[in-house]
Amino acid sequence: MLLEKAIDEFVQHLKSKERSAMTVRGYRMMLMDFKRYIEKELNGQVYLDEITLTHLEGYLDYRKQQGDQPVSRNRALYIFRSFFSYLDKRDLVDKDISQKLEPISLQQKERTYLLPEEVETLLAAIDHAIIKVAATTLAYTGLRVNELCNLTLTDVNFDTECIQVRHGKGNKDRTVPMNPKLKAILITYLKTIRPTTSSEKFFATKKTGALSDQSINRYLKLTTKQLGWTKHVTAHILRHSFASTLVRNNAPLPAVQNLLGHSDLRVTSRYIHQDLGQLQAAVNLM
């Protein structure tokens, strides 16, 4: 079977499994990039039985030369494993060569996050009304930026004081409570800030009827620059800061895990930070 046909069938399989549109798009983009790479290597259309482990390793090395970070190359490796597992289970290949790929080691770095007072300073400085509210929502709920951009008017329920996240990462739904402060901000947003539009998106501009993650991150970058900060602040940093604040206030990790929509508690544990004062207090307990 041609590689291109196999990719198309795999993409349809992902859709049938109700994987999120973002996941399907990401898998397809990476596999089509690999297709272009190997067709150039073999000088023409490629059949599945022509692909070797050397080709997969060569592609990962090519991504490294293009400047991809280890986390991006590990994602490509994971996609290879998912793709070839699919092919192997359907007897479209003799064996799953992707299992012999060596994972790329990741250097664990201390992640950037903002303290509550820094979050408030940042939010107050944003000079775009819609993005200020969107960033505030990210900071008070820990939503992923794509989850926030996909919220509809019916997903925000002021009676139950909850936000319904639909088709989050892993295509999972979850419910996130809103605190009274955020509830008041969102009600004011709907009454006085949100433009008149036929769009069902909760966060919408007059021009597009939606709000993009690029716009949010662009304004966060601009605002941090205006504040003279050296920290690189993105929408994901606001999510990280939300989780870190909960942990610092002794929220149970399983509760934080549910709020963030993590499937593995080990992922949530990355949001634990201890400053020097907390470490000194711990030592003083001895």
TrEMBL record:
It comes from the Bacteria. Keywords: DNA integration, DNA recombination, DNA-binding. InterPro entries: CB (IPR044068), DNA_brk_join_enz (IPR011010), Integrase-like_cat_sf (IPR013762), Integrase_catalytic (IPR002104), Integrase_recombinase_N (IPR010998), Integrase_SAM-like_N (IPR004107), Tyrosine_recombinase_XerCD (IPR050090). Pfam families: Phage_int_SAM_1 (PF02899), Phage_integrase (PF00589). Residues 109-284 form the Tyr recombinase domain. Residues 1-88 form the Core-binding (CB) domain. Site-specific tyrosine recombinase, which acts by catalyzing the cutting and rejoining of the recombining DNA molecules. Belongs to the 'phage' integrase family. This is Tyrosine-type recombinase/integrase.
